[in-house]
Each structure stands twice: as structure tokens, then as C-alpha cells.
Amino acid sequence: MGKILIIFPGALGDILLALPVIQAIKHRFPTAVLDFVGDVRYFGLLKCTFLFNSCFDFNSSDFITLFSPTANYPAAANFFRSYDLAIVWLRCPGSEKQLADKLNKYGIRTVIINDPNPQPHPPIHHTRYLLNSVKQLLESQILVPPYFRLTGELQQFARSFFLNYPNRRWVVVHPGSGSPCKNWPLENFAVVINQLNERDWGVLVPIGPAERSNKELLQKLCGRAVFVENLAIEKLAALFSRCSACIGNDSGISHLAALVGIPTLVLFVGTNPAIWAPWGKNVFILAKDSTIPITTEQTFCLKLPVSNTKSSLQIVECLSTVKVIHKVIEILEGEQTSY
User: pTM (2 decimals)?
Assistant: First the structure.
């Protein structure tokens, strides 16, 4: 296998859940060149995985031609014909054959196209679902956490950032997500932040473009927090690497913290952790009983992305601030000597 093109214009959490599968593909074809097509916002982070030779913007003209029945640009044909295999994780109902035919026409001999969104019933973890879509390529279906290493420049950025706050221990608190139905109440996060401040923990709150209202309300409700706004994903990863833990909803930011390796407490209020649990060796999940079938609890250890780790699932009737604060303190007391 010479060159492999992976097309996946997914959100941050989706991309991070795909990394173990892409790593397995790279392990199966160690001499192959892997290129990635997706959202440019994540390219800096993907460079830290050392999986890809090049990354390309999904919204460029070369890829827009794939979805036009008539467009046939020579530049696109020249680009695609160098690849032996294309793996396309993209929801395009009714257009799969048209897309495959066009990629074949452009010179890619083997094309695998799959909807990247698993069905809720029966629940299958997103990473395992993506693995099943390419199982014909792999000799083994054993997955391991993706390799991740910050560049020297990113490490220096994080060191310089925290020089402004000497002698502090830090926890990441992220109250947002891609959907309001996945969010634990913002007022509850404010209570957690205040409790951490009382215990002399510094709190780092990432704020994205759509979360400015969260910042304004948190500033009114809680004491000391450092807000980092619209920071590049790879720079957030660098800051997270110097923190002791992360608390957040089911979001790309929680998946990022888990990838970095810090203990990560994820609150599932509207999605099923059996499908969307982050990859990581220190992932702790609190889930409302309405988000996951109770029969899944007994077998959840088999569904966690990484087994034989400190990761755990706890199903509760309600995600009260008392329960969450108790779990946060438990995690911090168990981990702070390591960070």
C-alpha cells in the first residue's frame, strides 16, 4: 500500500475517537503515506499524533468537485490519482455510489465509504463502529490509545502561559458542548468552580466562539477563573498537559483532555457513554440513568475504549453538584501527587 487518503470532516470529538482506528491502519501498513482531509482547525493537533504526512482542507475546491455530478477538474484528478486507497467517513445518504465512482474515475482503485454516526440501538462505541467499517483491511482489531506528543514550541507556550500564575495547581472546567441537550447546568459548574477555588485550585475555563454567554454568566456567579478564549486546539492541549484534571460535558474538549492523558471527569446528561465515552486511561464518567440502559452497566467495562485502566462509569439518578464535587475531589486527591 503506497498512499492512503482519509476523508473525515467531523467535529473534534469525532476525530479524536477515530484516531485509534487510523493508528491501527498505519500499523497495518507501516510504510504507507497517510494524508487527511477535514477541518483545518484540527490540523495543528493532528500533527502531534505523527500519523499524517499532509492535511488538506475539506472545503477546498479539490473536494467540492466530489459532490458535483458534472464537475471534473484536472487539478482534482491529478491530486487523487496518487492514492491507492480512500477511506471516507461521511454521511451522504443516496450519494455513496456517485462518490465512490468519482473517486474511482479520478484513479483511486479502492474506496471505502461509511456513515460516521453509529445508530443508538444497539449501542456500539463510536471507535469500534469506525473500526468495523475498515475491518477488511486489518489483520487485528486490537486498539490502543493514540500516540500523542506536544511539539517543543507548544510546550514552551504552556510554560510561558502559567508563569503568569505561579504556585498554582490547575483544573480545567469546560461547561460547554456542541449541543445544549448535552450540557450540565451552567450554575452547577459555577458551584464546582467556587468549591475548587476554596481548596486553592486554579480553574482554567476554555471558551469557544459560541460560548461567550457562558463566560459572562460564570463571571457573575463564581470567584476566580482564568478564561482562555478562541485558542487553537493544539495550544489548548498544551495548557491541559500542565493541569491536574478536567471536568466537562460530553464534548470535544473533554475528549481532548482524555487524549492528553490528564484525569478527565465527563458528565453525560443527554448522550450515551456506551457510544461516546472518550479514549483515555484516566476517564471517569458520571451518567444520568436516563442516558444509558441500566443493563449496560454490568458490561460497560467491556465497552470502555481502554480496558485495564483507572477509567470508571457511575450511573446516578441525578447529577447533583454534591455528587460531582465529591467525585472531583476524589480524583484530585488520588492524582495530585503525580502532577
Answer: 0.89
